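Final report, results section. Input specification for complex C-07:
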Amino acid sequence: MSDDSLLKTPFYEMHVSAGGKMVPFAGYSMPVQYPLGIMKEHTHTREKAGLFDVSHMGQAYIRSKNGGDPALAIEALMPSALAVLKPGKMRYSVLLNDEGGIEDDLMVTRTFEPEGTLYVVVNAACKDKDYDILEEKLGDKITLEPLDDRALLALQGPKAEEVLASLAPEVADLSFMEATMVTLEGVVCWVSRSGYTGEDGYEISVPSDEAPAFAARLLANEDVEWIGLGARDSLRLEAGLCLSGHDFDGSVSPVEANITFALGKKRRETGDFVGADRILKELSEGADKVRVGILPDGRAPAREGTDIVDPNGTVIGKITSGGFGPTFGGPVAMGFVPKNLAVEGTKVQLMIRGKVHGATVAPTPFVPQRYKRKQS
Amino acid sequence: MTKYTEDHEWIEADGDIATVGITDYAQKALGDVVFVELPEVGAAFSAGDEVAVVESVKAASEVYAPLDGEITEVNGDLEGDPSLVNTAPTSNGWFFKMKLSNTGDLDGLMDEEAYNEHVAGLE
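Structure output:
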């Protein structure tokens, strides 16, 4: 079954021939799972190495128009320490609106270009919106150059280093949140040690024309399997990572979303970003509601949209991501609760299909993250 | 004789007691089952009522009562091992047994040949 209005990534034919079940996602035809199935794909990634097609995500260069630092320009809309990024270093950040709400989250990397050009990766469903916001608000200072001729692969799991280093030994030297240019099989790629599964691994930006052959080379390793969107979601949920448009949207601040690690220390002092009034106030006083991890009692998964209720049955919050954690071995969820309940161990109630189920506020990640951080 | 519904349930009747589960086609479409919510024993349902919920890693799906009747037994093994629905959908992965209000209703369901044709039409 195909839908001609959907976009295809350079790996589309490979997904289909690998038995991928293709579904519409953010305007693209993407594999939700392969014959292995979500559970085994999830476990394979945690035990070996999973290969994800994330080419639907938006890759772009951000260049300065006036010779200044493009990172300094985008700091007006992003509260992280970006201007201090040295070449080959990257940060997770958020794109804020005037009210301090999160329009999207993204990765910002300093390239090795002398002009201090940035390489950013944004969510598929948000890329047009993000590019419009950057253009509209910062168009006089920066140019945004979408890299439409690039595919993006994520190779995630404990075997990722061994697999990729067999093609380019230097990738073993990268630490978490570092990036470099690498020639892989004669193709110049931009490789970062990052991902969104909680595992060690890499994201590899590769020219579209060369991308299928490169993926085939990775898949020739018996430790590597294609992994679909289904397992990508269960992996990031277990890792306690936010999904844009679900765990936050333009109404939710970074303090509410509990991603204050994205707020740079100096940036908090200077408050030189949009929505700083609200965000700094919430930092000092606490936000009214906060995203927390939630462990449902029993076996029933609590899906996105499930109401969190108080003992009287009054709705006090909502599950924003939830499902079954294959590695955790039970249901896991994240959602927003009033700040007085955002304490580990607090008992809450979930309304699942009209029945009250107990649950407990719990720390995230649900499964330990295994990033290869720099030894200092 | 095993009967089938368009919603991919199988029904094996012994007198007026019908054992109900989901077909191999259904379990494949659902993927890895992680939870099954079963009805209360004694509860009465009309054909088409939502009687159970089966959850895979990715989503929850309803299971409908194939015919009018009252639940007499549920498969407690599914609580500890919901994957039985994947590994043995038409045997150990059964969902519930119901006492049919009218065994004649069985005649309105599909036989295996008709069900296979129904499935072939979906692919």
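The interface with chain A takes residues 31-32, 34-35, 37, 53, 55-60, 79, 82 of chain B (CB under 8 Å). The mean pLDDT of chain B is 96. This concludes the modelling results for the funded period.
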